[in-house]
Amino acid sequence: MMLFVLFAMVITTIVGLYRAKSLEKMLKVFLANLLVSVLATGLVMLVLLLLTQVLIFSSAPRDLHICRVLIWGLLSCSGVRFFSLTANSLLTLLVVVHGKKKIRKSWIFTLLASIWFVPVLIHLYILIPVVYPVFYYGNFGCFPLNEDSNGLATVRLVSSSLSIIASSVIPLIMCVVMPSVMFCYLRQNTMSAHRASYNKGLAKLALFLITGNFLNFAGLVLITIVAYASQEAAGYLLCIFWVVCLFPTPCFVYLYLKPVREAINTMLCPWRLHSGVIPVASSSSASHQQTSSISPPSNRPI
């Protein structure tokens, strides 16, 4: 049930993001990519859940390769989420410091491709059976196996540690450093009030998304610790925690981005427009007040 609620939230947020015309197009692309990575993680979790139910009520053989591929997909999607948040922070920094016009489309395409391919490559070691053995706990739960029957426990531990550092720790540090650099830049440079408000809105958005990154990192570390220290059913509780960690991203996009929030409210509650609860976009003063924190300045059209 939690996963279906998450899917509804993410899809609705993506549609609202698309309908928010006052946002930077590049920012919308990277935020949509972040939401898609959350959706992909949820889909892998759903497949794991369905596999568990099938194995409980059937006598089908336990295929360890499928188990290993699902774990690889889950950790790869988690890495994509970290890289997406880092890319969003990097893009925001470049827009604030250099402006949108100096950012080439080839850079954007390269960055988007790297967000997906690098985490997939980092976690390829999971597909090697001798390096990353797996097992079915209770004949249906799919978890990594902590054993040293082949003498490769050290290799497995080093590989897991390096993958966490490369796909989680480094992106997390960058997500903290880049918004800090943005705030320092905004303090040291004078600009128009509208431009300053716009840039601060972008910087605060990147800073707020760090919270979701910390939750993702906590869930990944806890699951890794349990996988290597225990084979108990506590892993199920950590999987639930990992699902909960997916919710902050669509929530923050909805709560913090006013154009997205208004687009979603209009889409879900169109009758509120006629009751006067949501101001009509034709009012220039109201529209300027609602989008000044994140909409682009008038002297730099999108």
From TrEMBL:
Transmembrane domains' residue ranges: 6-22, 34-57, 69-96, 108-128, 164-186, 207-229, 235-257
Superkingdom of this protein's organism: Eukaryota
Keywords, sorted A to Z: Membrane, Transmembrane, Transmembrane helix
Protein's name in the database: Uncharacterized protein 17
Gene source species: Halisarca dujardinii (Dujardin's slime sponge)
Lineage: Eukaryota, Metazoa, Porifera, Demospongiae, Verongimorpha
